Amino acid sequence: MSVESDAGVFTYLLDNLGVKDVQFEELLTLEPESLASLYPVYGVIFLFKYPTDTPYTSTDKPLDGDFDRDAAEHLFFAAQTIQNACGTQALLSVLMNKEGEIDIGEKLREFKEFTMVLPPEFRGEALSNSELIRDVHNSFAKSSPFVDETQRSGGEPEDAFHFVAYAPVDGKLYELDGLQPAPISHGACAPEDFPARVMEVLQRRIARYDLSEIRFNLMAMVRDLRIRAREIGDAEMLAREERKRRDWQFENALRRHNFVGFAGAVLKGVTESKLREGDGAYAKWIEEATARTSHRIDTKKKGGGGDDVEMEG
């Protein structure tokens, strides 16, 4: 099960991991100024379509930057060994490397101390065996009550998406991707230069895709914006951020519930009601619904709209 790419989901992942005074904020532009305005910024998480037409991993040289094979000795980097957990792992890749700047909580500090003496592949195994991390991930993981038809033989394969983390650590900009054999260095990078430097890297990455591919998502790990609002005395900003937290809490509560049974019961009740009416009421209801659907499709085509584009986040 994968975690939904949503700032509210990732913020509450942080909260449930015991992290204090940190949140995620979604970015709608690759302009460095938009990221710099959120200072302090600890790192970003980037979601993209996993390429299937070209090799993704390499043991020699990545498509951009250079492997820093010694970096894992002093920064937290774990090989991805858990399927569909790349979102949580990307979050931890930023978080664990910002201890000192961020209060990561006692349990994560203990986990980091235990795993830093291990090689990256065993750190990945330790992630899968951590009860705290597993339970928090599963509490926000997307699941579906339906059979995945795309996995049946003869069907179109479902698009796969992947999360990677970028963070300034020890004076360098690192790309932390558990599917790669080592951290990827993108050169020298002071914390104040991070917004401009990481946007350059992301722009090059996106440029490798076809122009029609727009399914990307970018989130920044930043200090809780409510703290800034209180520090500068901005009551309007504070009210906006408090309202955002309430909205996130409500949306996350909905995500944890499966409404398929409820929807099925409603549909069954409506259908039985139409059948009891007699005089062809059920057939007329179906005919009217089909006509309305056809009308919406025709209107959409005339208006120049195509099929809806799937967006993550």
Automatic annotation (TrEMBL):
GO cellular component, one term: cytoplasm
Every UCH catalytic domain range: 1-223
Pfam family, one: Peptidase_C12
GO biological process terms, semicolon-separated: protein deubiquitination; ubiquitin-dependent protein catabolic process
Keywords assigned by UniProt, alphabetized: Hydrolase, Protease, Thiol protease, Ubl conjugation pathway
GO molecular function, one term: cysteine-type deubiquitinase activity
EC number: 3.4.19.12
UniProt KW Lyase keyword: no
Gene3D superfamilies: Peptidase C12, ubiquitin carboxyl-terminal hydrolase
Site (Transition state stabilizer): 80
Region Disordered, residue ranges: 294-313
Biased composition (Basic and acidic residues): 294-305
Active site (record annotation): 86, 162
Catalysed reactions, as listed in the record: Thiol-dependent hydrolysis of ester, thioester, amide, peptide and isopeptide bonds formed by the C-terminal Gly of ubiquitin (a 76-residue protein attached to proteins as an intracellular targeting signal)
Top-level EC class: hydrolase
Site feature location: Important for enzyme activity: 177
Sequence similarity: Belongs to the peptidase C12 family.
Record's protein name: Ubiquitin carboxyl-terminal hydrolase
Organism whose genome encodes this protein: Monosporascus ibericus
